């Protein structure tokens, strides 16, 4: 037989069904103590505490609780004698443990969502409520479930790096189900052009975004950005250095035209005055100061093919009106060049309505040729421009100085147009280049055989990892880096459905059952014991994270009444705060 604990060698057993509780409930009798003791609980580990991980925990827990209700006859109709008895369910409860590499949860909501989008970040409150069992308690109270069926729990293991602190095979051996939800933040897609890897001042937008959101692993990006935006700061007076409104003369080129690229441009244009009431760290605002004089957002295709949404475009058009002293511009000739017959057909197609609204907004913002701005800052959205090489600065051969782009033209059928070369080039000055053309997922150690390298995701079928194993996936590592925070809801529901089908298939024996003669503890207890034995691993539980949260929201740390928090910027700082539990 194949051995449990390796990725493709997960041993399958027929699931036993402890039906005594179900029978007793249907007969309106009190369940026996032995039945309760023998009924297994489903143990689930979720790797990653971002939106996909939390949604997976929420919807899988909900699915299991509903099945327990159904199997116990609690949700049966009044005339249940006319209905067939509910199918048995061999689990008496579910225990979910979320395992996160960083001490803090929330993933891209905390470290990826733009700080001036607090309405998106508010989803953190919904995730935190799961640790008070709010969702489960609501289900329970509405259906008057007896105490013995209050059968779910959620726990947090922060600062635990799966693949380093504990192998994935070990995690599999501890849990009935393992859900991978660690995202696609480990690698960036590359332009593959000269100068990309050799010149200072060329950064991925992923790293830049992580830095301005206070990610503890990207503090080193700050000095690089400062050198690019303020190359002569050593000559500034102390008064100038402390000025919140001083605008950097630097020119920034953002390559790529998704929402992240537009977020980056907006943050650079707003600077400290526009971000003062957000959770942008003080150290970041000291670098951004009054913002950047010129930002160009460059894409190879036309505006109809842009990956941005109208919300992000509208925010750029409002920069001046909202008092950020920044003008947004798009060139009419580039809009016209992109409006091929195929592009017109794309706008008229069944999915063309959002793009039509974007086209209308951009046409209203369009200018003819180069136009002088009456503001100190400007954001240009450039289309049909493909970067072909990055060249060094005239004053420093090791630092980027300009981006050479080639004009492109679109050819092809609707939704299949390709940007073709024209041999017409334009050189854009650039003190900082931010590449925003997408992320790639990376496999955890030992997962190469299960990883689709071309797509950058774990190979899966509706969330079930390929092969004979107890692993599932959710979020970006399941489908690729697409969608918004809310996209993870349907994704998690699909994965939860696949888990339910898997455990219903009678192909898995619950761990820690009376038949389990293993001398090692399983599930939450097993993981806790393992981590306590591992030298140098300091796992953070939810109450300890609450200490970090309290420290960050302490009013004495905040620069304004509206600022939600001043983040702790290093893991050591977080662990020090978390260790002082009283």
Walk me through what this model shows:
The chain is an alpha/beta fold. The strands form 6 sheets. It has a 7-stranded parallel beta sheet. A 5-stranded parallel beta sheet has the order 3-2-1-4-21, with helices on both faces. A hairpin with a 7-residue loop joins strand 12 and strand 13 (400-411). Helix 3 crosses helix 19 (487-504), helix 10 (221-229) packs parallel to helix 13 (282-288) and helix 21 (542-552) packs across helix 22 (571-578). The two termini are 50 Å apart. The model is unreliable at 1-36, 134-142, 144-149 and 513-518 (pLDDT under 50).
Range of helix content: 25-40%
How many E strands?
Answer: 21
> In percent terms, what proportion of residues is strand?
15-25%
Q: What gap, in angstroms, lies between the N and C termini?
A: 50 Å
Strand order of the largest sheet: 6-15-7-8-11-9-10
Count of separate DSSP helical elements: 22
Largest sheet: 7 strands, parallel
What is the alpha-carbon Rg in Å? 27 Å
Instruction: Classify the secondary structure makeup into a structural class.
Output: alpha/beta
Q: Using the alpha-carbon principal axes, give the shape.
A: globular
Low-confidence stretches: 1-36, 134-142, 144-149, 513-518
Mean of pLDDT: 86
């Amino acid at each position: 037989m194949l051995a449990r604990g390796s990725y493709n060698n997960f041993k399958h057993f027929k699931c036993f069904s402890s039906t005594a509780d179900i029978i007793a409930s249907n007969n309106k009798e009190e369940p026996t103590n032995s039945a309760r003791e023998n009924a297994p609980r489903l143990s689930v580990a979720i790797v990653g505490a971002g939106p996909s991980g939390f949604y997976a925990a929420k919807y899988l827990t909900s699915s299991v609780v509903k099945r327990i209700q159904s199997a116990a006859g609690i949700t049966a109709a009044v005339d249940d004698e006319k209905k067939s008895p509910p199918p048995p369910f061999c689990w008496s409860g579910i225990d979910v443990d979320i395992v996160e590499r960083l001490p803090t949860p929330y993933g891209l909501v905390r470290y990826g969502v733009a700080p001036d989008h607090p309405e998106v970040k508010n989803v953190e409150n919904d995730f935190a409520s799961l640790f008070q069992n709010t969702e489960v308690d609501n289900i329970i109270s509405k259906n008057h479930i007896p105490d013995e069926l209050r059968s779910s729990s959620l726990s947090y293991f922060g600062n635990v790096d799966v693949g380093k602190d504990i192998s994935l095979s070990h995690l599999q051996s501890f849990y009935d189900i393992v859900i991978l939800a660690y995202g696609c933040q480990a690698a960036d897609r590359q332009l593959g052009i000269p100068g990309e890897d050799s010149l200072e001042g060329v950064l991925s937008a992923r790293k830049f975004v992580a830095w301005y959101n206070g990610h503890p692993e990207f503090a080193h990006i700050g000095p690089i950005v400062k050198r690019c935006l303020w190359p002569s700061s050593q000559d500034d007076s102390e008064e100038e250095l402390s000025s919140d409104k001083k605008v950097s003369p630097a020119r920034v080129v953002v390559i790529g035209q998704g929402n992240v690229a537009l977020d980056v441009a907006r943050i650079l244009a707003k600077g400290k005055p526009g971000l003062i009431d957000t959770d942008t760290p003080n150290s970041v605002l000291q670098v951004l100061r009054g913002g950047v004089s010129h930002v160009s957002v460059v894409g190879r295709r036309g505006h109809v093919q842009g990956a941005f949404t109208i919300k992000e475009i509208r925010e750029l058009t409002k920069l001046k009106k909202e008092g950020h002293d920044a003008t947004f511009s798009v060139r009419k000739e580039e809009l016209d060049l992109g409006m091929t017959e195929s592009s017109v057909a794309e706008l008229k197609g069944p999915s063309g309505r959002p793009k039509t609204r974007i086209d209308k907004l951009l046409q209203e913002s369009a200018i003819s040729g180069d136009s002088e701005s009456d503001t100190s800052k400007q954001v240009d959205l450039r289309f049909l421009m493909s970067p072909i090489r990055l060249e060094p600065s005239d004053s420093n051969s090791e630092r980027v100085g300009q981006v050479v782009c080639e004009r492109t033209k679109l050819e092809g059928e609707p939704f299949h147009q390709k940007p073709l070369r024209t041999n017409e080039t334009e050189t854009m000055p650039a003190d900082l280049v931010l590449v925003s053309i997408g992320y790639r997922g990376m496999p955890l150690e030992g997962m190469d055989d299960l990883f689709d390298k071309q797509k950058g995701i774990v190979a899966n079928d509706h969330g079930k990892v390929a092969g004979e194993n107890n692993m599932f996936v959710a979020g970006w590592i399941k489908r690729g880096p697409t969608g918004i925070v809310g996209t993870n809801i349907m994704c998690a529901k699909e994965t939860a459905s696949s888990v339910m089908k898997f455990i219903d298939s009678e192909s898995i024996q619950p761990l820690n059952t009376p038949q389990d003669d293993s001398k090692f503890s399983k599930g939450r207890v097993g993981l806790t014991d393992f981590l306590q034995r591992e030298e140098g691993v300091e796992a953070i539980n939810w109450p300890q994270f609450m200490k970090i949260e309290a420290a960050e929201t302490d009013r004495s740390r905040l620069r304004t009444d509206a600022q939600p928090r001043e983040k702790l910027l290093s893991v050591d700082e977080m662990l020090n705060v978390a260790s002082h539990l009283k």
